Amino acid sequence: MEINLIWPELAFIKSITKDPLTKKSIAGKLIQKNCRIIESGRSRLLCNLQERLKQRTLTKLRIFVPHIYEKEHVQIRAVIINLFEKFNNLKVSWFLLKDDPDTKKVRNLFHQGFEKLHFYELEMKDIKDVNSRDIEARYCLTRAFLGKVKKSEKNEVEIKFDIDELKNAIKVYVDEKESDIKVSEYFKENMPGIEGFSNPMNELKKRIHSIADTELNVLIDGETGAGKEGVAFFIHDLSKRKNHKFEVINCALFTENHLVSELFGHVPGAFTGASQKGRSGLIEGLDKGTLFLDELPEMSLQGQAMLLRFLQDGKIKPFGADNYNNKKYDVRIISAGQPELLKEKLREDLWYRIAEVKIDVPPLRKIKEDLMALVDHYLYKKMATSEKRYEVQDFFIRKLSLFQEYSWPGNIRQFLAFVKRRFEIGETEESIIEKELKLLKKDELRKEINDRKNKKTLRNFMKDFESLIKKHRDGLPTSEDVKLSYTYYVSEELTPEKTQKQVADKLKIKEATRTKQYKQYSQRITQNK
Questions:
Q1: I need a surface site. Which of 66, 348, 454, 462 has the fewest CB within 10 A?
Q2: Same domain, yes or no, for 228 and 283?
Q3: Are residues 338 and 373 located together in one domain of the fold?
Q4: SS3 for 120?
């Protein structure tokens, strides 16, 4: 049995003149055979491979991985040693990149005791760079990372790499022909990705697969900047509607009338500034496709009523028209918005229609092991040259622990802003990024300490409030009692580090009032003791 372990970048090998194992040239078709793709967690994948080979005989193992992280090499060494011990005739070749700093490091790590491990250094001409003409390959690679849902014998659902998609990507490079792979205009412009293999990301992928093939309307729940739009696209792309249009509308960017007009169209002169010729709405051109409505709570009640009617019977009424059109349109609606705003601003009957099924997108603080996958995806998205990719990746690999210690309240959008700066400006920005990240972490720690103090203030206040209720058997304490108590406990918590004026400002009362209320309640406490 032969197995090829491929790092995504080296999946795009055109041909190699000589394979150390067979002494023959390697072409894309050989690489496609029995391949496993690797992005992060390489040591874990090797361990899984070792486990699955219990009943199989492995004769050849090719490792197309030019970089390894410092923490991984010990496990990788152990796995390869075990494979050599188990399979006496096993031949292993490791493909690295010529003139790459990591090549020397890998050779040194696996020098002693690995005489049967053959190294081969690829030249850049052997690898086809990802550039603007290779969007089809990037699309296939993204779909490969999205994986396939497979059920094991124990009926457990797991995500596995979609090797067929990877093969499609390789063919784009190897054959050097026009591809018949259909890539949507949305992907070409935005190149979204759902990559990484942390548990929350695998659960998200499973959920996307389970929802995509249904006709249910979807509500995506997630924090700002977590990647909800990308999730919406892949629900569409994995569905039967993938060959039809996918459109995005951010409801917060339109005024009330313009949003209704954008979705449903309008008749001539329907509102101030409206076209005198009228216009068709987005939904009319989206038949059989998918519409993603971001920031849905910003839609007016009139717009919500029209959307509800459309979801009920597929009919639309252009803004300003007296009657609904007779034609029915088939458009799947995927929505997103902050949960508290959805409950506060959305009509209840519309809620049941748009939230037929829900999907949660994890915040970045819960998938920190996937930070490098996000870096890699951004670099591919920018069509960076190989040299530029290695340069930027090296910085984030060296400083990975620093980036993982921060909670990233702005999620993926905030993190990619740092990646973009390092990519655009270069090495001169590294020290600035590092300093800025450390300051952000200090601010975060300070906020956490203040939050704890505030919680302590409220706990003490509520405890005292309960005792006040017990004392007032004839009824609840007066508002004056509550006011004095709260002023006292907030003052107690904040006075050590803030002036009396700052405490008064925090309470939104005058300094003299704060002092008076504090003294009054102090006297009560003394009397009760």
A1: 348
A2: yes
A3: no
A4: strand
